[in-house]
Task: structure prediction
Amino acid sequence: MAKVEGKGEIAALNAIKIIKENKETKLFLSNRNLNDKEIKNLSDELKLNTSITTINLSENKIGEIGTKYLSEMIKINTSVSDLSLYQNEIEGQGASYLSEALKSNRSMTKLILANNFIGDEGAQYLSEMLIKNSSITHLDLGNNEIKNEGAKCLLEALKCTTSIKTFSLTRNIIGCEGARYLSEMIKTNSSITYLDISSIGIKGEEIKYLSEALKKKTSITIITLGENYFGDEGAKYLSEMIKINCSITHLYLHYNNITNKGA
Result:
């Protein structure tokens, strides 16, 4: 594991030295104040690297241009399987570059894009990628300002995919309409085992649709539903689901205004 020292340009230069050695398998560059120019230099070196499988670039200053450089690297590199871009600034256009690169990529299995302002625009690009990509098993899109339309695109795509096992949509307020798309996806998808839908703005009535979809679901084992504040009404629907569903092993319900009556 290579934890790179320094910030900004110094961190980038130290990372390039490690990449050129072609020995390390993990490259950690979290919170190193890397900008788009420095990402270009790193991406150029990574194109032909065959040893590094995990790259953590979370909490930097990577915008859509930097994401374009990374995407060009992804088109060529065949060893990177785990990429974290948590809390950068890639936005919708950056998501489009990544999506295009990942359509034909067969090495990437884990992609963390939480906290990147990708919005509904970015969600649409990613949904097109999901239909064609068959290698990604872990996708985190938490806190990305995705609303109903973006959720609809993603959840429609997830109906078709068979590779995604872990999916997070946490802290995207998809509301009532998005919750119905979510329920329909759950009925159809057979690969997802871990689903994080905490803090997505679903209330008691939406929990009813969700619970109905989960009653006979056998693939999902872990669900996080915290911070939706659906109260005792939602707890009632979930209780009816639990009586029938035999596959869920962990159900997280923190901060949902459930009283003793609902419990």
Observations:
- DSSP finds nine helices and ten strands in the chain.
- The CA atoms of residues 62 and 92 lie 13 Å apart.
- The beta strands are 2-3, 26-28, 54-56, 82-84, 110-112, 138-140, 166-168, 194-196, 222-224, 250-252.
